[in-house]
Amino acid sequence: VHALVKRLTDQGFVAFFRNPGHDGWPSSEIRHIHAIYVGVHMKSSLRSQVSDWMQGRNGLVSHGAYTFFHPTQTQRNRINSLFNQAN
């Protein structure tokens, strides 16, 4: 899963691994990857999730820390550039 999240990031996606009981994701919910392509104009709730990702947060209402994946500075710069071009 970590390798997939890294690949998604390399392709311009902000991806959160939603693992029950971790990083603010409720234990009662299902495990999945939530991914947002940042190279397109998006609604405000998705822009907020991208902003959270850029700050190491979980993209949820709690805005807690996201510990599963830490992008490199190069990845952050690329995501930020793509996001700014489209939004």
Can you offer a commentary on this structure?
The chain has 87 residues and is an alpha+beta fold. Helices cover 39% and strands 14% of the residues. The chain has 3 helices and 2 strands. Strands 1-2 form a two-stranded antiparallel sheet. The longest helix is centred in the last third of the chain and has 14 residues, at 73-86. The chain starts with a helix and ends with a helix. The mean pLDDT is 97.
List its traits.
87 residues, alpha+beta, 2 strands, 39% helix
Topology of helices and strands:
Elements: H1 2-10, E1 13-18, E2 32-37, H2 44-54, H3 73-86
Total helical elements: 3
* Total strands: 2
Structure classification: alpha+beta
Multimer state: single chain
CA-based gyration radius: 12 Å
Q: Any low-confidence stretches, pLDDT <50, length ≥5?
A: none
Summarize the structure.
The protein is built from three helices and two strands. With 87 residues, it is of the alpha+beta class.
